[in-house]
Amino acid sequence: MTGNANMRRAVTFPSFLFVILLWGLSNAPVGDAIWLNLPTTGTKCVSEEIQSNVVVLADYVVVSEDHGHIPTISVKVTSPYGNNLHHTENVTHGQFAFTTQEAGNYLACFWTDSHTPGGGEVSVNIDWKTGIAAKDWESVARKEKIEGVELELRKLEGAVEAIHENLLYLRSREAEMRTVSETTNGRVAWFSIMSLGICISVSGLQVWYLKRFFQKKKLI
Questions:
Q1: I need a labelling partner for 67 at 20 to 30 A (CA). Which of 58, 104, 105, 199 fits?
Q2: How does 53-78 read in b/e, with b if 16+ C-beta sit within 10 Å?
Q3: Which class for 159: exposed (0-12), middle (13-18), buried (19 or more C-beta within 10 A)?
């Protein structure tokens, strides 16, 4: 009797932990909310290093205490190679979405329009989502007719796949950095050998020249 009770507790406890883990993942934040205070002159940018073939979705909105007048801003998003992905002017809110074509730092810059009346800083709220966080799970649920725990399991599966892809990306970056480091170390070693050879050659020439000089002067 006691053994059966202990077995039931052993089975129930991991299941309870699994439910808690699933609930925590389903209620975890899936995006990054960013606040920017834009000065009257100048530009502020946000960037994120993203690997290739990743979906990026961002919403931005100007927040103003004066509801009678909301200042306008301009937005420009560029890729690591400088390609223009999104550019708009004279807006108070907007959205941009794209799929990354190359890995690197993606830059989103915001600035206030020069003809905007009034003074002071302008606050902009940015909801930046990438990868699994940018996926429309409501559409997936309607299309595949899933809900409840099954939908949460699909989200968990997507999160695990995203983590695995990030680990593979980090491994490839680490391999690239290791290759660059080894190449740099090799070049430094050859440069050191060449420098040492040049120093020895110059020292030998100096000794030879001084010996000949003293011989001509009949000092030795």
A1: 58
A2: ebbbbbbbbbeeeeeeebbebbbbbb
A3: middle
CB 112 within 8 A of CB 42: no
Three-state secondary structure readout of the chain: CHHHHHHHHHHHHHHHHHHHHHHHHHCCCCCEEEEEEECCCCCEEEEEEECCCCEEEEEEEEECCCCCCCCCEEEEEECCCCCEEEEEEEECEEEEEEECCCCEEEEEEEEECCCCCCCCCEEEEEEEEEHHHHCCHHHHHHHHCCCCHHHHHHHHHHHHHHHHHHHHHHHHHHHHHHHHHHHHHHHHHHHHHHHHHHHHHHHHHHHHHHHHHHHHCCCC
**Spatial distance between the Cα atoms of 88 and 158, rounded to a whole number of angstroms:** 32
Please answer whether residues 128 and 58 qualify as being in contact, where contact means their C-beta atoms are separated by less than 8 angstroms: yes
* Cα 90 from Cα 60, distance rounded (Å): 13
